Amino acid sequence: MTNRVPRLPRRDARMDPDRLVTFGDAVIAIAITLLALDITVPEGLADGEVGAALRDALPKFGAYLLSFAVIGAL
Questions:
Q1: pTM to 2 decimals?
Q2: 34-71: b (≥16 Cβ within 10 Å) or e
Q3: Of 27, 35, 53, 73, which is most buried by a Cβ count within 10 Å?
Q4: What is the mean pLDDT of the chain?
Q5: What is the CA radius of gyration of the chain?
């Protein structure tokens, strides 16, 4: 009686560059989506308060655009 372990087919250790690029694109897309979740739309504003609400949200938009540029440059 022998205790032979069946061998599994050998997988090629090299990674296809297209798969790596696709994975990188997916990671970037998820990161950018998570950044956009922080931007909210205020509800119940009167017409005269929209400009002030946009000015208050401007730092978030700037941070999003800067983060988008940094992540996209990678």
A1: 0.52
A2: ebeeeeeeeeeeeeeeeeeeeeeeeeeeeeeeebeeee
A3: 35
A4: 81
A5: 24
